[in-house]
Amino acid sequence: MKKLLAVFAFVIKIVAFQLIVFLFLSSLQSEAFAQTIKIQHIVFDDDWRNVWSDASEKCKVNPKYDQWILNGTYALSATIEKGGALIFKREIPLDTKIYTGIAGFINGGSGGKQIIGVCVIDHTGARLPNNLGLDVRKYTQGGCIPVDDWKAFAIPFSHFGQLPKGIKGICFVNASEENAAPIMLDDFGLVDFAISSKASANSRKASPRTQPKNREITYIFSDKFENGWQDWSWQSESTLWDKSSSGGKMSLIVYQQANGAIAFGRPSKTPFRTKGYEALEFCLNGGDSNKQKLILILYDASGKEIRRGVSINDKDYIEDGTLSINAWKRVRIPLSRLRATDISIGKIALLNNTSEEQAFLIDEVMFVK
Protein backbone atom coordinates (compact mmCIF):
# COMPACT_ATOMS: atom_id res chain seq x y z
CA MET A 1 0.00 0.00 0.00
CA LYS A 2 2.85 2.38 0.89
CA LYS A 3 4.49 1.68 -2.50
CA LEU A 4 1.18 2.32 -4.27
CA LEU A 5 0.72 5.63 -2.45
CA ALA A 6 4.30 6.61 -3.24
CA VAL A 7 3.78 5.87 -6.95
CA PHE A 8 0.49 7.78 -6.93
CA ALA A 9 2.15 10.80 -5.26
CA PHE A 10 4.97 10.69 -7.83
CA VAL A 11 2.49 10.64 -10.72
CA ILE A 12 0.61 13.59 -9.20
CA LYS A 13 3.88 15.56 -8.99
CA ILE A 14 4.70 14.80 -12.63
CA VAL A 15 1.23 15.86 -13.82
CA ALA A 16 1.34 19.04 -11.73
CA PHE A 17 4.79 19.91 -13.06
CA GLN A 18 3.69 19.35 -16.66
CA LEU A 19 0.60 21.52 -16.08
CA ILE A 20 2.71 24.35 -14.65
CA VAL A 21 5.12 24.17 -17.59
CA PHE A 22 2.22 24.13 -20.07
CA LEU A 23 0.58 27.17 -18.47
CA PHE A 24 3.88 29.02 -18.33
CA LEU A 25 4.70 28.35 -21.98
CA SER A 26 1.18 29.25 -23.04
CA SER A 27 1.28 32.57 -21.24
CA LEU A 28 4.77 33.25 -22.56
CA GLN A 29 3.69 32.49 -26.11
CA SER A 30 0.64 34.75 -25.79
CA GLU A 31 2.70 37.57 -24.28
CA ALA A 32 5.41 37.25 -26.94
CA PHE A 33 2.82 37.35 -29.72
CA ALA A 34 1.19 40.46 -28.29
CA GLN A 35 4.47 42.25 -27.79
CA THR A 36 5.73 41.56 -31.32
CA ILE A 37 2.67 43.03 -33.07
CA LYS A 38 3.69 46.46 -34.33
CA ILE A 39 1.05 48.32 -36.33
CA GLN A 40 2.75 50.24 -39.13
CA HIS A 41 -0.33 52.18 -40.28
CA ILE A 42 -2.89 52.78 -37.54
CA VAL A 43 -6.59 52.62 -38.39
CA PHE A 44 -7.90 52.74 -34.82
CA ASP A 45 -6.03 53.39 -31.58
CA ASP A 46 -8.01 55.49 -29.04
CA ASP A 47 -9.67 57.07 -32.08
CA TRP A 48 -9.81 56.79 -35.86
CA ARG A 49 -6.39 57.66 -37.31
CA ASN A 50 -4.81 58.48 -40.66
CA VAL A 51 -8.05 59.91 -42.19
CA TRP A 52 -10.01 56.69 -41.52
CA SER A 53 -13.59 57.22 -40.33
CA ASP A 54 -16.72 55.29 -39.39
CA ALA A 55 -19.03 54.23 -42.25
CA SER A 56 -20.73 51.33 -40.47
CA GLU A 57 -24.05 49.86 -41.59
CA LYS A 58 -26.61 48.43 -39.14
CA CYS A 59 -24.03 48.64 -36.42
CA LYS A 60 -23.88 50.55 -33.12
CA VAL A 61 -20.35 51.89 -32.64
CA ASN A 62 -18.76 53.35 -29.51
CA PRO A 63 -15.18 54.57 -30.19
CA LYS A 64 -14.78 55.77 -26.60
CA TYR A 65 -15.32 52.47 -24.79
CA ASP A 66 -13.33 52.65 -21.53
CA GLN A 67 -14.58 49.65 -19.57
CA TRP A 68 -12.15 47.18 -21.12
CA ILE A 69 -9.14 48.56 -22.96
CA LEU A 70 -5.96 46.97 -24.24
CA ASN A 71 -3.73 50.04 -24.37
CA GLY A 72 -4.20 53.77 -24.19
CA THR A 73 -7.48 55.37 -23.10
CA TYR A 74 -10.22 53.84 -25.24
CA ALA A 75 -11.12 50.72 -27.21
CA LEU A 76 -13.76 50.52 -29.93
CA SER A 77 -16.94 48.66 -29.03
CA ALA A 78 -19.43 47.61 -31.72
CA THR A 79 -22.69 45.68 -31.82
CA ILE A 80 -23.20 44.45 -35.37
CA GLU A 81 -26.79 43.62 -36.35
CA LYS A 82 -27.69 40.71 -38.60
CA GLY A 83 -26.61 41.66 -42.13
CA GLY A 84 -24.68 44.67 -40.79
CA ALA A 85 -21.00 45.58 -40.74
CA LEU A 86 -18.52 47.61 -38.74
CA ILE A 87 -16.80 49.59 -41.51
CA PHE A 88 -13.60 51.65 -41.43
CA LYS A 89 -13.47 53.82 -44.55
CA ARG A 90 -11.39 56.53 -46.23
CA GLU A 91 -12.09 58.70 -49.26
CA ILE A 92 -8.71 58.21 -50.95
CA PRO A 93 -7.56 54.59 -51.47
CA LEU A 94 -4.55 53.56 -49.37
CA ASP A 95 -1.72 51.99 -51.35
CA THR A 96 -1.12 48.57 -49.76
CA LYS A 97 2.06 47.67 -51.66
CA ILE A 98 4.37 48.26 -48.69
CA TYR A 99 2.09 46.35 -46.31
CA THR A 100 1.49 42.62 -45.92
CA GLY A 101 -1.89 42.59 -44.20
CA ILE A 102 -4.16 43.84 -41.43
CA ALA A 103 -3.72 43.06 -37.76
CA GLY A 104 -4.91 44.10 -34.34
CA PHE A 105 -6.56 42.84 -31.18
CA ILE A 106 -10.11 41.55 -30.76
CA ASN A 107 -12.27 40.85 -27.71
CA GLY A 108 -15.59 38.99 -27.79
CA GLY A 109 -16.84 40.32 -24.45
CA SER A 110 -19.11 37.93 -22.61
CA GLY A 111 -20.15 36.21 -25.85
CA GLY A 112 -17.17 34.75 -27.64
CA LYS A 113 -19.27 32.70 -30.09
CA GLN A 114 -19.61 35.41 -32.71
CA ILE A 115 -18.93 34.63 -36.36
CA ILE A 116 -17.24 37.69 -37.80
CA GLY A 117 -16.14 37.94 -41.41
CA VAL A 118 -13.46 40.41 -42.49
CA CYS A 119 -13.35 41.87 -45.98
CA VAL A 120 -11.67 44.85 -47.62
CA ILE A 121 -13.17 47.44 -49.95
CA ASP A 122 -11.09 48.01 -53.08
CA HIS A 123 -10.79 51.25 -55.08
CA THR A 124 -14.00 50.44 -57.02
CA GLY A 125 -16.06 49.97 -53.83
CA ALA A 126 -16.25 46.17 -54.17
CA ARG A 127 -15.89 43.97 -51.09
CA LEU A 128 -13.18 41.33 -51.33
CA PRO A 129 -13.00 38.36 -51.25
CA ASN A 130 -16.83 38.48 -50.91
CA ASN A 131 -19.59 40.16 -48.90
CA LEU A 132 -19.24 37.79 -45.94
CA GLY A 133 -15.46 38.04 -45.77
CA LEU A 134 -12.86 35.77 -44.17
CA ASP A 135 -13.68 34.12 -40.85
CA VAL A 136 -11.56 36.10 -38.39
CA ARG A 137 -11.40 33.10 -36.02
CA LYS A 138 -9.06 31.32 -38.43
CA TYR A 139 -6.60 34.20 -38.15
CA THR A 140 -6.90 34.84 -34.41
CA GLN A 141 -4.58 33.62 -31.70
CA GLY A 142 -6.11 30.43 -30.31
CA GLY A 143 -8.45 29.97 -33.29
CA CYS A 144 -11.47 31.68 -31.70
CA ILE A 145 -12.88 35.05 -30.70
CA PRO A 146 -11.96 35.15 -26.99
CA VAL A 147 -14.41 35.59 -24.12
CA ASP A 148 -13.58 38.61 -21.94
CA ASP A 149 -10.01 38.70 -23.21
CA TRP A 150 -7.88 40.32 -25.90
CA LYS A 151 -6.26 38.18 -28.61
CA ALA A 152 -4.16 39.18 -31.60
CA PHE A 153 -5.27 38.52 -35.18
CA ALA A 154 -3.47 38.99 -38.49
CA ILE A 155 -4.79 38.48 -42.04
CA PRO A 156 -2.53 38.61 -45.13
CA PHE A 157 -3.69 40.87 -47.97
CA SER A 158 -3.03 37.99 -50.36
CA HIS A 159 -6.04 36.18 -48.87
CA PHE A 160 -8.38 38.95 -50.02
CA GLY A 161 -7.35 38.79 -53.69
CA GLN A 162 -5.83 41.35 -56.04
CA LEU A 163 -5.61 44.94 -54.77
CA PRO A 164 -3.81 46.81 -57.58
CA LYS A 165 -4.97 50.26 -56.52
CA GLY A 166 -5.19 49.87 -52.77
CA ILE A 167 -8.14 49.79 -50.37
CA LYS A 168 -10.81 52.28 -49.33
CA GLY A 169 -12.29 50.30 -46.48
CA ILE A 170 -12.11 47.39 -44.02
CA CYS A 171 -15.30 45.62 -42.90
CA PHE A 172 -16.13 43.40 -39.94
CA VAL A 173 -19.36 41.62 -40.93
CA ASN A 174 -21.86 39.76 -38.77
CA ALA A 175 -21.65 36.48 -40.70
CA SER A 176 -23.86 34.53 -38.31
CA GLU A 177 -27.62 34.09 -38.00
CA GLU A 178 -27.55 35.96 -34.69
CA ASN A 179 -29.45 39.24 -34.49
CA ALA A 180 -26.48 40.95 -32.85
CA ALA A 181 -22.74 40.25 -32.71
CA PRO A 182 -20.81 42.37 -30.17
CA ILE A 183 -17.04 42.79 -30.50
CA MET A 184 -14.30 45.10 -29.29
CA LEU A 185 -11.21 46.16 -31.27
CA ASP A 186 -8.03 47.97 -30.28
CA ASP A 187 -4.58 48.74 -31.75
CA PHE A 188 -5.87 47.90 -35.23
CA GLY A 189 -4.28 48.69 -38.59
CA LEU A 190 -1.92 47.61 -41.35
CA VAL A 191 1.37 45.79 -40.83
CA ASP A 192 4.38 44.97 -42.93
CA PHE A 193 5.80 41.88 -41.26
CA ALA A 194 5.61 38.40 -42.77
CA ILE A 195 2.22 36.80 -41.90
CA SER A 196 1.98 33.01 -42.03
CA SER A 197 -0.82 31.53 -44.11
CA LYS A 198 -1.49 28.87 -41.46
CA ALA A 199 -4.87 29.00 -39.80
CA SER A 200 -3.51 29.02 -36.28
CA ALA A 201 -2.21 32.40 -35.25
CA ASN A 202 -0.15 30.76 -32.51
CA SER A 203 2.39 29.76 -35.15
CA ARG A 204 2.40 33.25 -36.64
CA LYS A 205 4.94 35.36 -34.78
CA ALA A 206 5.61 38.86 -36.09
CA SER A 207 9.02 40.41 -36.43
CA PRO A 208 8.86 43.60 -34.32
CA ARG A 209 8.81 46.82 -36.37
CA THR A 210 10.76 45.29 -39.24
CA GLN A 211 10.14 44.59 -42.90
CA PRO A 212 10.95 42.30 -44.56
CA LYS A 213 11.88 39.45 -42.22
CA ASN A 214 15.33 39.32 -40.57
CA ARG A 215 16.22 42.98 -41.19
CA GLU A 216 18.19 44.82 -38.56
CA ILE A 217 17.36 48.47 -38.14
CA THR A 218 18.45 51.48 -36.11
CA TYR A 219 15.82 54.18 -35.75
CA ILE A 220 16.52 57.87 -36.12
CA PHE A 221 12.86 58.81 -35.66
CA SER A 222 9.85 56.66 -34.80
CA ASP A 223 7.26 58.40 -32.59
CA LYS A 224 10.22 60.41 -31.26
CA PHE A 225 13.88 61.08 -31.98
CA GLU A 226 15.81 57.97 -31.03
CA ASN A 227 19.33 56.67 -30.43
CA GLY A 228 20.88 60.06 -29.75
CA TRP A 229 19.51 61.85 -32.84
CA GLN A 230 18.18 65.39 -32.42
CA ASP A 231 16.30 68.03 -34.43
CA TRP A 232 18.89 70.26 -36.12
CA SER A 233 16.59 71.80 -38.75
CA TRP A 234 17.03 75.26 -40.30
CA GLN A 235 14.40 77.52 -41.90
CA SER A 236 12.05 74.64 -41.20
CA GLU A 237 9.57 73.81 -38.44
CA SER A 238 8.70 70.24 -37.47
CA THR A 239 5.99 69.23 -35.01
CA LEU A 240 4.88 65.88 -33.65
CA TRP A 241 1.66 64.90 -35.41
CA ASP A 242 -0.77 62.26 -34.15
CA LYS A 243 -3.37 62.40 -36.95
CA SER A 244 -1.34 60.38 -39.46
CA SER A 245 1.53 57.96 -39.06
CA SER A 246 3.16 55.25 -41.15
CA GLY A 247 4.30 53.44 -38.05
CA GLY A 248 3.38 54.06 -34.44
CA LYS A 249 1.32 56.92 -33.06
CA MET A 250 3.36 59.97 -34.11
CA SER A 251 4.94 61.37 -37.24
CA LEU A 252 6.57 64.74 -37.91
CA ILE A 253 4.70 67.40 -39.87
CA VAL A 254 7.26 69.65 -41.57
CA TYR A 255 6.88 73.23 -42.84
CA GLN A 256 9.85 74.36 -44.91
CA GLN A 257 10.77 77.78 -46.22
CA ALA A 258 12.62 78.02 -49.53
CA ASN A 259 16.08 76.46 -48.98
CA GLY A 260 14.99 75.26 -45.54
CA ALA A 261 15.72 71.75 -44.32
CA ILE A 262 14.57 69.26 -41.76
CA ALA A 263 17.77 67.86 -40.30
CA PHE A 264 18.56 64.96 -37.96
CA GLY A 265 21.85 65.51 -36.14
CA ARG A 266 24.14 64.06 -33.48
CA PRO A 267 26.79 65.70 -31.28
CA SER A 268 30.24 65.71 -32.90
CA LYS A 269 31.60 63.42 -30.19
CA THR A 270 29.02 60.71 -30.93
CA PRO A 271 28.65 60.37 -34.73
CA PHE A 272 26.80 57.41 -36.21
CA ARG A 273 28.96 54.73 -37.86
CA THR A 274 27.36 53.21 -40.98
CA LYS A 275 29.54 50.09 -41.18
CA GLY A 276 27.35 47.05 -41.87
CA TYR A 277 24.30 49.07 -42.91
CA GLU A 278 22.90 48.90 -46.44
CA ALA A 279 20.41 51.74 -46.77
CA LEU A 280 18.74 54.81 -45.33
CA GLU A 281 14.94 54.53 -45.31
CA PHE A 282 12.05 56.77 -44.32
CA CYS A 283 8.37 57.29 -45.12
CA LEU A 284 6.92 60.47 -46.65
CA ASN A 285 3.36 61.75 -46.99
CA GLY A 286 2.58 64.74 -49.20
CA GLY A 287 -0.54 65.81 -47.31
CA ASP A 288 -2.57 68.03 -49.64
CA SER A 289 0.08 68.05 -52.38
CA ASN A 290 2.53 65.79 -54.18
CA LYS A 291 4.60 68.61 -55.73
CA GLN A 292 7.31 68.65 -53.08
CA LYS A 293 10.93 68.58 -54.23
CA LEU A 294 13.51 67.31 -51.77
CA ILE A 295 17.26 66.81 -51.82
CA LEU A 296 19.08 64.60 -49.33
CA ILE A 297 22.40 65.78 -47.93
CA LEU A 298 24.69 63.84 -45.58
CA TYR A 299 27.32 65.44 -43.37
CA ASP A 300 30.25 63.76 -41.69
CA ALA A 301 31.15 64.23 -38.02
CA SER A 302 33.05 67.45 -38.78
CA GLY A 303 30.07 69.02 -40.56
CA LYS A 304 31.45 68.54 -44.06
CA GLU A 305 29.02 67.53 -46.81
CA ILE A 306 29.61 63.96 -47.94
CA ARG A 307 27.44 64.21 -51.02
CA ARG A 308 25.09 66.97 -52.10
CA GLY A 309 22.14 66.86 -54.46
CA VAL A 310 20.74 63.32 -54.10
CA SER A 311 17.19 63.98 -55.27
CA ILE A 312 14.45 62.11 -53.44
CA ASN A 313 12.24 62.59 -56.51
CA ASP A 314 13.79 59.63 -58.28
CA LYS A 315 11.94 56.44 -59.24
CA ASP A 316 14.93 54.45 -57.99
CA TYR A 317 14.23 55.70 -54.47
CA ILE A 318 10.45 56.30 -54.28
CA GLU A 319 7.57 54.87 -56.31
CA ASP A 320 6.72 57.10 -59.33
CA GLY A 321 9.36 59.61 -58.21
CA THR A 322 6.83 61.66 -56.21
CA LEU A 323 5.19 61.89 -52.82
CA SER A 324 1.51 60.91 -52.64
CA ILE A 325 -1.44 63.03 -51.57
CA ASN A 326 -2.62 61.93 -48.10
CA ALA A 327 -0.79 58.60 -48.40
CA TRP A 328 2.52 57.20 -47.19
CA LYS A 329 5.34 56.06 -49.45
CA ARG A 330 8.59 54.47 -48.39
CA VAL A 331 11.89 55.95 -49.57
CA ARG A 332 14.91 53.65 -49.75
CA ILE A 333 18.36 54.94 -50.72
CA PRO A 334 21.31 52.51 -50.70
CA LEU A 335 24.25 53.92 -48.75
CA SER A 336 26.49 53.04 -51.71
CA ARG A 337 24.64 55.73 -53.71
CA LEU A 338 25.47 58.21 -50.95
CA ARG A 339 29.14 57.21 -50.68
CA ALA A 340 28.41 56.37 -47.08
CA THR A 341 28.97 52.63 -46.67
CA ASP A 342 31.53 52.87 -43.86
CA ILE A 343 31.77 56.39 -42.48
CA SER A 344 30.76 58.42 -39.45
CA ILE A 345 27.67 60.59 -40.01
CA GLY A 346 26.91 63.69 -37.97
CA LYS A 347 23.84 65.04 -39.76
CA ILE A 348 21.16 64.09 -42.30
CA ALA A 349 19.19 66.86 -44.02
CA LEU A 350 16.21 66.94 -46.36
CA LEU A 351 16.42 70.26 -48.20
CA ASN A 352 13.54 72.11 -49.88
CA ASN A 353 14.61 72.15 -53.52
CA THR A 354 12.03 74.75 -54.61
CA SER A 355 11.77 78.53 -54.40
CA GLU A 356 8.54 78.29 -52.43
CA GLU A 357 7.37 77.06 -49.05
CA GLN A 358 6.33 73.41 -48.83
CA ALA A 359 4.96 70.99 -46.26
CA PHE A 360 4.92 67.22 -45.83
CA LEU A 361 4.94 64.44 -43.22
CA ILE A 362 7.91 62.22 -42.42
CA ASP A 363 8.06 59.07 -40.28
CA GLU A 364 10.01 55.86 -39.58
CA VAL A 365 13.47 57.27 -40.39
CA MET A 366 16.01 54.48 -40.07
CA PHE A 367 19.27 52.86 -41.11
CA VAL A 368 18.79 49.31 -42.36
CA LYS A 369 21.18 46.37 -42.45
Concise account of the structure shown:
With 369 residues, the protein is mainly β.
Question: How would you portray this structure in words?
Answer:
9% of the residues lie in helices and 43% in strands. With 369 residues, it is mostly beta strands. It folds into two domains: 41-203, Sandwich (Jelly Rolls); 217-368, Galactose-binding domain-like (Jelly Rolls, Sandwich), CATH 2.60.120.260. Strands 1, 2, 3, 4, 5, 6, 7, 8, 9, 10 and 11 form an eleven-stranded antiparallel sheet that branches. Strands 12, 13, 14, 15, 16, 17, 18, 19, 20, 21 and 22 form an eleven-stranded antiparallel sheet that branches. Residues 10-36 and 196-214 have low confidence and may be disordered.
Task: Name some characteristics of this structure.
single chain, 369 residues, mainly beta, Jelly Rolls, 2 domains, eleven-stranded antiparallel sheet, 1 helix, 22 strands, 9% helix, elongated
Shape label:
elongated
> What is the annotated CATH architecture of the largest domain?
Sandwich
Range of strand content: 35-45%
- What is the typical, i.e. mean, pLDDT? 82
Global structural class: mainly beta
Count up the helices: 1
- Main beta-sheet annotation: 11 strands, antiparallel
SSE pattern, N- to C-terminal: HEEEEEEEEEEEEEEEEEEEEEE
Give the terminus-to-terminus CA distance.
66 Å
Helix content: under 10%
**Measured on Cα atoms, how large is the radius of gyration?**
24 Å
Low-confidence stretches: 10-36, 196-214
Fold-level CATH name of the largest domain: Jelly Rolls
Number of domains: 2
- Please, what is the oligomeric state? single chain
Q: What is the CATH H-level superfamily of the largest domain?
A: Galactose-binding lectin
**How many strands in all?**
22
Highest-level CATH class of the largest domain: Mainly Beta
